[in-house]
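Reviewers of the previous submission asked for a worked example of the structure-prediction workflow described in the proposal, so we include one complete record here. The input consisted solely of the amino acid sequence. No template or homolog information was supplied to the procedure at any stage.
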Amino acid sequence: TGDTIRLSQQFQRLPDRPGTVRVRLVYQIPDPVVSLQAELPAEASLADSEGFDRTNDSHLRWSGTTRTPTLTYDLPVNETIERTGPQAADGRYLYADTGNWSLFERPPTPTYWEAVGATTLEFDRQSSTDGPGAAGQWIVFLGDHEVHERTAHGQQFRLVVPADANTTEPPSAILDAVANGSDALRVGDRDESVFLVAAPTGTVPWGVRGIQTGDADVWVRDGERLDEPDNAWLHEYVHTRQAFTPTGDTLWFREASASYYAALLSLEQETIEFEGFRDRLAV
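From that input alone, the workflow returned the following structure tokens.
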């Protein structure tokens, strides 16, 4: 433990400030570290700090007065896009905070340090929520919810269903689909953990039907069905298995292959007929 810099990143809703969440960083700095600097997101507003001195608008330097310094800042999380493609929807939101709940991509935590000694230091970051919520590697949901879990084929699936969500499909059926897809899809490595969120659609006009970020974090609109050739749940799961980096000339292949395998897996799971699979490929 003496060779690891530990960071706890905690998220909290601010119901009286829709569109904004509070982020608290707690560092545990081992003895070999002699200096450390943290960088805030450009749009963040510093609310409090202990054991840090501010060097400019976005950088703070550890003062050395405590080995457990903290930073607290407020962060706007609403994000909109304009896009077209196989997963495009009628709205514009990619991430949102409504005051009742928040669904957003966690901010990065750039941290720089200097240390003495020959041992290489590790950096370990963990995410948690202050109040009801669930955090994956990159996607965070804040608010009342239920969690449904499934272990299959070396993967742990965690499906978060917010209290405001109205899923068209039962959570067990969604987990059946991705678990079966985990076995049937023999392309790309399987991540140990897959984090999924059923995004509420009652008050937020989403700009996409679903999105995958990080290694294996996914949100999909709560109304998406499993009996469609363009199955959004399987489409985003396939993205978690894609480990390649496309060039400008092959960027199309990322979405095209996800659409193909989503339709193929749906056909193999007998949730669609062959005619639906054929018509999807003809688009």
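The two ends are 55 Å apart (CA to CA). We consider this example representative of the routine output the project will generate in years two and three.
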